[in-house]
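Input for the complex:
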Amino acid sequence: MSIKVNFNNMMKSVLGKEGISDEDLLQISDFAKQAHEKVERGRGLAMQGWMDSPYNQQAVVAQINAAAKEIQNRFENFVVLGIGGSALGPIAVFTALKHLYYNELSKEKRGTPRFYVVDNVDPERMNALFDIIDAEKTMFNVITKSGATSETMSQYLIIMDMLQSKLGDKATENVIATTSESKGNLIKLSKRDGIKTFYIPDGVGGRFSELSPVGLLPAAVVGIDISKMLDGARDMDKKCKSGSLSENPALTTAALQYLSIKQGKNIGVMMPYADSLKYISDWYAQLWAESLGKETDLDGNYVNVGQTPVKALGVTDQHSQVQLYNEGPYDKVITFIEVENFRSSTVIPNGCEDFPDVNFLCGHTLNELMSKELYATRYALTKRGRMNYTIVLDEVNEYNIGALLYYMQLQTAYAGAMFNVDAYNQPGVEGGKNATYALFGRKGYEQVAEEIRSAKSDDDKYIV
Ligand code: PA5
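Predicted:
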């Protein structure tokens, strides 16, 4: 396993009074063990089906790879239609593992179809997509676990209408559905129209679904070795088998986050120092926010817990947000992701000998600059007592990405158990979904529509 977590800069011995003491860790160790046991007891049950993904999804790898091969042979573009957990994972993994200007590469250099994810219903973006792709040469992968999400179903209808106008009866050949086998409308439509389908296992919720066909098919289409991703996840699972803090990295960071949230660190910054990992932060933000941000705990008490995830990127955000992290309120935990070995190296050439203030950079590499800037930022934050820890990857590859995603899922599950909340529901999201249905007059949502109608309308006094 080539992922380590260095949490020295969370500790009192380094940070001073803002830090966590060895005694705090000792005191929380039994509580953490219980959280671990609770998560383990739920393995594979109810909405914890995702814990089995590294094992049972290996069985669909061959099917996914066969479909991916066919798509690679027949299509120039691959477009994911989905939102939330049905989009953020595919974006994160694609960005992590493919060329950073992949779509702009020539067909020969890419070797696999261009890749797009449409995860919004912005009409301009949808039309803009049609300006750059030839729909007939495009495979659309419509992904929705519930098969009911308004945004994704709208996209599906637009795409089908357009494909039918161009391809008639053959329209369905350009669509693959990834959805629940047992519920929702997409599965019914797919069966009716003969659309090829991959299934999301019942116990795998949207934000925990990247290691199912949701993420594996898009990844395989662009040539990512999905078997290695699952291997990484499996080995991370093994590494986290122990309920002891000193042995289980995901349990350790869950406990550190739990303790720091209790101390008022209500903001969690995720700051990878690699462009390839930029969208891991977006994926993580959904996982952490939607799983832990809850009004009530499992006993029905009003708790209003959660930690607000903030997405940042090193070094870019050193020139924007880091000022706040250093001098603003002591309300954050900063998680750095460090990559020890980049996949390429760029030398900063000579040519500034007469300008010592620039010349000091010459002969070094951008790799060194990235690494030293991370070191320096961490040093400055730590000196000011700002909690931070670093997830260290030896390199960005399929195995490590699978392990990283699984580690973050486990950390979230443990934290959910520590806060005694249901990490797998999202009643706060459902509220908005239901109001949208009501606003469109959907049958069954009459009461919500009535509530909305009787709500106080905006007062002009507060509009300027
Ligand atoms: O994590 C979740 O369950 C949600 O964020 C979903 O991923 C999101 O709402 C999209 O749902 P669906 O895949 O059912 O369209």
